[in-house]
């Protein structure tokens, strides 16, 4: 696992020459980010947001900072939503994309090429690999093999760190701070990799209260505070009436009936802004990993 | 439904500032185009044709007018032919493409994300959406949701307006006029959305005679003239012998046995030129919707 | 079949004007390349290699020589590995790509559009077609139809010429010469189209010894030298011990158990360099076919 380039590493490398350390980084799991790294990623994400909003409707102002770079999306299971977000991020910065939605076909002829062999081939074609895999730990194995950066876009029941990053970023954008917040996590938490990654990240901040609300008793480790609850929860107009005015309603999407459509127009409904924040977070990570700040 | 930008709207917006009204437009159904709009679209399509032909074999002369723009092709059912035509059009103008050939997977996790939710996510990533859907009316719903332009690339048994536009454009290019023509429509007309869209468009012109030739009795409304016929019709060398010299043979492709291969070399066989015209029409629409004339 | 542009043809066309003959070429089968053509393709491939290595980690130095060109990958059967290699090659030279991984859908509506009709449509959208097909001879039929260059990316049991070119190129890069080498071909040779294409190419050089090692008795025509053998062969550490120091171990990938993982770190293991050479060979062919040297 190549460490995500820290501020200090980048500073020393900037002294040493052109972006020497910037090819070192991978984004594999929530645990690799300390509070300083989060702050920096969020700063760049805000720059990306400003960049996008500053673009005129005639396209002027588009960044070309990643022109000449090629990102391979290597998806062993389909996830159109995540893939599109990464591909849009790359293109918004002027970069190019190689798409492999059906990466299992790499091994179809031989019925069993290893992930490592596939990674060695794809890294010969691209500058950064975005990997979606059905097995926990696959992203870490890919990063151990590749000389180019690897971003984990979800590895089975394991981690989905960019989703967790965009969740935390959304909280900060909506509320203005992360310290001292109260966070309610609702749903099938036992199987939720996003929840696990998010809980890791949010624990970096101070005075956090997390309420776990789930049909099943939840057992999560490494978290100081939790409350388990039962029942099925739907956010609708009635819930809005009792929610505080400063509350923020988030959802990773897609939703089914967890949030009713009439909630969408409420200013506290942040889930579509949250999806857009995913674009900015992924733009920020691609920029940091490929060219630095 | 955001109205397709009319000449006058664009003129006033040009006076008011930079392309203010140009994000208003959608291309949803044949009915939205009046004769003036058709004339203007065809003018731009001819410019696109000239641009393409003027490009040297070394690539010089390629337009970059849509550089920095991102088109999402959101296809809920496969249509490689239509998708390629749109993607080629976007790239020929310097724009970029996000491809979703299997848009149903957006909702696979939740088994039922609404089209509206998907549109809200995709419009966060792109500047224009090209939608292919299996349900009539889907494009109109998407346009009602999106703040960016939506182009209908076929919605089930509903409309396929860009196909109709390229058909009418082809007639004009081949014959030199649209007024006074005689048009024979042959095939399974009852289920043909292209025929319906085409009949709407061609009715904008004067002294049109349309002959419907179909195995079944055809019932179409809003058309003054029709003749129904029975039988199976194949265009072959024998038909060529009795067709007027100025006749034009068109087909939306793919063909099976409706037209024999030995007809291809006849100058009246326009179907491959027709396919190419689809590229020019789509280039014209993308340019008009994204940056105006 | 449009002949691959020879040195002399290009010279005369350079005298006659701008790249007049360069649209003539197709890459269909190994037999079309004489030793002079191979030498020239390998020269350009080495330039591509140098270009790639000379690119800084900030992307500076990327070639834009194919900017404005559009390559259509028309794949009637999936081959993610080959497709990615071509698409990376095109993008590394600044070109754009239209992807059709499921080209069979071109004909799905009609259950039987001919390859020729599909080619006529796609050539209207693109500048070069890379065709993968399940039928032997499909690439030749496509080339006979298209006015733009066609590259055969494998046609069923037929040919896979770019794979053969990269194999020969790899031998030259690893050993420094092609004349006088001893080549062992191991595996299911009877059904190997790559082996057939490779044997054709290598026979252009002098004093070549080819050893065919296969479970079955091999019958290959047009080759002067061969030895057949039986058994199943695995390259592992023990084989490395008896292989000469200057030996080169190649494999088209994906591998299963033919080569053990502990061989990978041996300097004689060339298969990942070989995959990378595929990128350079395809960059060279695209450049030669679209803009010449």
Give a structural overview.
Three copies of one chain form a homotrimer. Chain A has helices spanning 7-16, 35-54, 80-92, 115-123, 138-145, 161-175, 193-202, 237-242, 271-290, and strands at residues 70-75, 96-100, 128-133, 150-155, 182-186, 209-213. The first copy, chain A, is an alpha/beta fold and 293 residues long. In chain A, the strands form two sheets. In chain A, strands 2-1-3-4 form a four-stranded parallel sheet, with helices on both faces.
Find the count of extended strands of chain A (DSSP E, 2+ residues).
6
The rounded distance between the terminal residues' Cα atoms of chain A is 21 Å
Write down the oligomeric state. homotrimer
Compute the average pLDDT of chain A. Answer: 84
**Main interface pair?**
A-B, 28 and 38 residues
* Total of DSSP H or I helical runs spanning 4+ residues of chain A: 9
Helix/strand order of chain A, N-terminal first: HHEHEHEHEHEHEHH
Largest sheet of chain A: 4 strands, parallel
**Proportion of beta-strand residues of chain A:** 5-15%
Percent of residues in helices of chain A: 25-40%
Query: In terms of per-residue confidence, which ranges of chain A show pLDDT below 50 for 5 or more consecutive residues?
Result: 6-24, 217-231
In spatial order, strands of the major sheet of chain A run 2-1-3-4
